[in-house]
Write a structure and sequence with these properties.
The structure is a homodimer of 284-residue chains. Chain A has 284 residues and is α/β, with parallel strands linked by helices. Helix content of chain A is 43%, strand content 15%. The first copy, chain A, has an eight-stranded parallel barrel with strand order 1-2-3-4-5-8-9-10, surrounded by six helices. In chain A, strands 6-7 form a two-stranded antiparallel ribbon. The radius of gyration of chain A is 18 Å and the shape is globular.
Chain lengths: 284, 284
């Protein structure tokens, strides 16, 4: 195993506790299954942060600080930072550092490659950016997953059933009489040697979500697609019960208000999602 | 269409000429189908560049300058730069700028997402990094391709049949009685409204490569997997004829020598690949 000495760690590491158990414990502690997508667009930043030295970081910082007690997982999607070039990626690194050990930072990167390149991507996600977890795309099969899964303490979320409609172009292909997304859920269970192999299933496909939970009882599931994309948080939580899960909302939370009260509005939206996605009534 | 005014362009743009025609013309001018993978690893850099201000850029610069007349396409894989964090990405941007209009810079990113995120990734690849082309992964179907294809003058290479063995996990799934990779080659032809939709097929699967060329006669094909991965450049070129193509080698060229003659050795290796992949004898 790679030494951890050179790593910046975006989430707390407890020796001997699997990623799956750590996620479950964090959701328990915070009594929340909320994942907030930190996907900033410069043109949508509120006036209050535009004059900051690093407006993207400042926007993220205020949202994080307003929501940290109800949010076990933050999920920056790398696309929004890369679109701003090197400066955007610097804002991302600052965001990961700012969250620190207070939550899991899940780098939504959907990386997928083979061989020494997959090794380099895993190093990028877990060492250079310091994410506690990331999403991957396994179009190239197990080769695309193995170098990520070798980081035993980090969560590796494999795209299984995505929230969009045209995903069927690929995901409804048939393997041994079953759809590809189902095949991958089964493969993920085989690949899960360290309690860190996890899955992504869209809230927009509740039946498929229930089926994935059946096939992969203990695997963490990241559930995007509530809010702007039309999925329902309550249904998603009901389908995903029986193992660790988080329900993501990005735009519905971070742009809950376009005014200078954006952080308070984000907190209210996060609490609303928390209450929907809890399987028992929550105390505020 | 998005305005081009804010773009740094990694490859020359000629109004009204499709990406496919531009690639074919460049291969014709240089009498070469060589693509060089610029995948630098700090631990493999020759002593001659280690003391430079930006060793990664210096390594790339010398290789590019030694090979530019025989190389229509350079393909940096983003993994190797991301693994070095923000500094690595700065070296990448400098590399793209250094190549400028002298070749097509194909960002091997294998990005794939949906909705506003796919739009952000396309902007990242074609505007922030300034690539003339990039690779994408369409596990999410057409949604993952559309925002890239909307940049009419840029090449969009869809992962079809990857060069590795475990790709079959996913790519051998069946759609309408045919393997997924074949299905995607057909879809790519439908999606090709601007002469910029392109495919990736590994040299390690020559029969599949021939089949893809049959199904997608005019589409550019990027062929990885020669050299270190065991594919044969001559066979690949024979199978891919009938449309634009480039054959990629990364380690076989950039690490042809570990000494201070690395750039000259890269040139010799590139010329060897050029001669293999030419469909007619080349003049040196």
């Amino acid at each position: 195993m790679r030494s951890q000495r050179a790593c910046r760690i975006g989430s707390s590491i407890v020796d001997g506790v699997s990623f799956s158990d750590r996620l479950a414990a964090l959701c328990g502690e915070k009594r929340s299954h909320v994942c907030i997508g930190l996907d900033p667009l410069p043109e949508r930043l509120p006036a209050a942060v535009r004059s900051a030295d690093d407006p993207i970081f400042e926007f993220n910082r205020r949202i994080v600080d307003a929501t940290i007690d109800v949010t076990p997982v933050y999920k920056p999607n790398l696309a929004f930072y890369e679109a701003l070039g090197v400066d955007g990626l610097r804002s991302l690194v600052r965001t990961v550092e700012h969250i620190g050990h207070r939550a899991i930072v899940l780098g939504d990167a959907k990386r997928g490659d083979i061989d020494s390149t997959a090794v380099a991507y895993a190093r990028a996600m877990f060492e250079a950016f310091g994410f506690g977890a990331c999403t991957i795309n396994v179009y190239q099969g197990h080769d695309a997953a193995a170098p990520f899964l070798a980081y035993r303490d980090r969560g590796v979320f494999i795209l299984c059933r995505t929230s969009n409609r045209t995903g069927g172009d690929v995901q409804d292909a048939i393997v041994d009489g079953r759809p590809l997304w189902e095949h991958l859920a089964r493969r993920a269970v085989e690949w899960n040697q360290h309690g860190n192999c996890s899955l992504v299933v869209g809230a927009t496909y509740p039946d498929e979500l229930g089926r994935v939970r059946e096939l992969a009882p203990g695997l963490p599931i990241l559930i995007p697609g509530v809010g702007a994309q039309g999925g329902d948080g309550r249904t998603a939580a009901r389908k995903a019960r029986g193992g660790p899960f988080v329900v993501n909302s990005s735009r519905g939370i971070i742009y809950a208000s376009s005014g200078d009260d954006f952080a308070e509005a984000a907190r209210r939206a996060a609490i609303e999602l928390r209450d929907q996605a809890l399987l028992e009534p929550a105390a505020r």
